[in-house]
Amino acid sequence: MRLISFIAVALLLFCSGCASITGSHPDDPLEPINRKVDAFNQAIDKVALKPIAQGYKDYTPETIQTGVSNFFGNLKDVGSAINNALQLKPKQTVDSCLRVLINSTVGVLGLIDIASNIGIQKHSEDFGQTLGYWGLPAGPYVIIPFLGPTTVRDGVSYFSVDTMADPVHYVDPINARNSVSAMRLLARRASYLSAEEQMGEIALDPYSFLRDFYLQKRKNDVWDGNPPD
Questions:
Q1: How many C-beta atoms surround the C-beta of residue 114 within 10 A?
Q2: Sign of the C-alpha dihedral, residues 29, 31, 33, 34?
Q3: DSSP conformational letter for 90
Q4: Omega before 173 within 30 of 0, i.e. cis
Q5: Calpha distance 99→194 (Å, rounded)
Q6: How many helices (H) and strands (E) in the chain?
Q7: What is the DSSP letter of 94?
């Protein structure tokens, strides 16, 4: 995992230095390369990950899927607490800490989202959002092989600070860590299936649609849903 992270960060930094390549979108100067990488990712996904994710969604009881989603959502709240603190958001920081405390105990290691049931709001934040909050531009849009869309800012953040803040990073032995990571990837991929079907029905160019959606979503995330005009 450390090797993959190193390679990914190196690739992102390389891409940031190659941003002079001409693309049709101002935030996507690497579009010719990104489209090729995206096509590669789609081909791999079609024969490997998507069929497994579809089977998981179709045949795993919904209560188990909800529990798995809650479990990984609880782990994500750890990083959210840290990043809310770094953004000097006291209420969101307290809420995130309470969510982890309550869901990790009363919620049986996060399998049950008790915190949401009693009205403690979720405030998802990552280090890319924190850097954006303090004014660092997102940088070029990049498609990473096997992983998908990001920006230079968000990608470097994910493979450095966000990884270090992820409790899964500290699971030992490594076989157990890899199993947990694989389960999270599977659950995440399954959660995209319905949206993927809708995108296929309405998007003339899925690549452009996904890029514009991703960039707008990240902008909304950084500005807590109220981006400047």
A1: 18
A2: positive
A3: H
A4: yes
A5: 28
A6: 12, 2
A7: H
Quickly list DSSP for 189-212: HHHTHHHHHHHHHH-SSHHHHHHH
Task: Supply the pLDDT for residue 22.
Answer: 58
Radius of gyration of the chain from its Cα atoms, rounded to whole angstroms: 18
Q: Cα angle vertex 11, ends 128, 27, to 5°? A: 55
What are the contacts of 3-6 at 24+ separation with CB within 8 A? 5/159, 5/160, 5/163
Residue numbers of the chain with a pLDDT score lower than 50: 3, 6
Report the 10 Å Cβ neighbour count for 26: 8
Burial class (CB in 10 A: 0-12, 13-18, 19+), 195: exposed
Q: What is the pTM of this model?
A: 0.88
What is the structure's pLDDT at 3? 46
Cα–Cα distance for residue pair 195/172, rounded to 1 Å: 34
Q: Give me 73's structure tokens.
A: 């959502």
- SS3 per residue for 127-164: HHHHHHHCCCCCCCEEEECCCEEEEHHHHHHHHHHHHH
Dihedral (CA of 9, 14, 15, 17) sign:
positive
